[in-house]
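Researcher: Good morning. I'm working through a list of sequences from a screen, and I'd like to move beyond sequence-only analysis. For each chain I'm collecting a predicted structure so we can compare shapes side by side. This is the next one on the list. No need for commentary yet; just the structure.
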Amino acid sequence: MTVDDTTSGAGAQPPSDSSSGASGSSGSPSGSSPGSSSADSSSAESSNGSAGPSESADSSGSSGSSGPAASSSSVHPTPHHEVDHTAEPTDDPLAIRLEQLILGADRRYTPFQAARTAGVSMELASRFWRAMGFADIGQAKALTEADVLALRRLAGLVEAGLLSEPMAVQVARSTGQTTARLAEWQIDSFLEGLTEPPEPGMTRTEVTYPLVELLLPELEEFLVYVWRRQLAAATGRVVQAADDEEMVDRRLAVGFADLVGFTRLTRRLEEEELGELVEAFETTSADLVAAHGGRLIKTLGDEVLYAADDAGTAAEIALRLIETMTHDETMPALRVGIAFGTVTTRMGDVFGTTVNLASRLTSIAPKDAVLVDGAFAEELVRTGDAPASEAEAAAEAAAAEKEGEEPPSYRFALQPMWQRPVRGLGVVEPWLLSRRTNS
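Model: Good morning. Structure tokens for this chain:
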């Protein structure tokens, strides 16, 4: 249950040949020769000028000059299995200018040269680049000083013992997956709407460059701010864990909210209408989850997955979702399933039996209703958010009235449902969750 970075990352790849290369958005590295074999690496070294990158690495320690790299393409013949990608693409100057603006540097290195200049093995560089979601580019000269610096930083964290190599690859992968999705959304939705030509005769591309130039520093600062805020919140949750094991395998409430009959809707609605419905559902769900103290794990079109540290928060979010969607005539019915228990967290996602149980409960929940598992119901009772039964609540109210005291006030009501087998999880007894009115 992770974000698909294989497609989103590939969209940022640098050119694969000199004619089409200018349309690549950011010169994203990965290199087919680094990832394929050591034989490819050695052939790349002989064909792309091993003297160039090694001389620049040895002499400057930071970045290779364009001289050795340029001379490599003229001195060394191109192997029969490679196309000469060292020439700078020139067929779309605007795309090149946009790339330079966004990356803040010119294309300068092949993958092999970048790895050598950074002092990183081709194998490790390839692992980092692919983890970030960048497509293989052969030996195209499409990398910049920023790519070299990124390799140095990751490799430096490993050399300093701050991160293991597998952990550094995980850092690269999680960052790549998250930012790839963000970049795709910003281009598809945000910039597309803002780059409508303001005057007749102007093209969208003519508007894009000055717009990106103005937005880039502001969006960059905002991205760093949000990331720091989220990092602070996540760190705070982890350090409050009871023990070291709980930092990885934690007890959480996990909820799925699912639109009923979405498959039928896809056949009936136009693509634009369907996109608007999904966007409205995801936006409303994200806002409600955040506002009431939960964490949106991910959205899956017709379904959202969220988590909360306590059962009361998860229950409030679920009922708010049902209530909000019910009052929206454009939305289909919604059903929610929640389970409470140990959850394994990896790269922002959640895994384990608790997550699977929440998913199964969602699939059997009635329309506009919330089903929870027994552990979740017990947690609500333990924290005083729900009575063990209505009979017990009535007895407590009568005792309080007799003593002239206020009866206990509960937020939620629980109704036991029929036991039923759930695929892969055995027999479960769901509970129907509702909001309780205290009279």
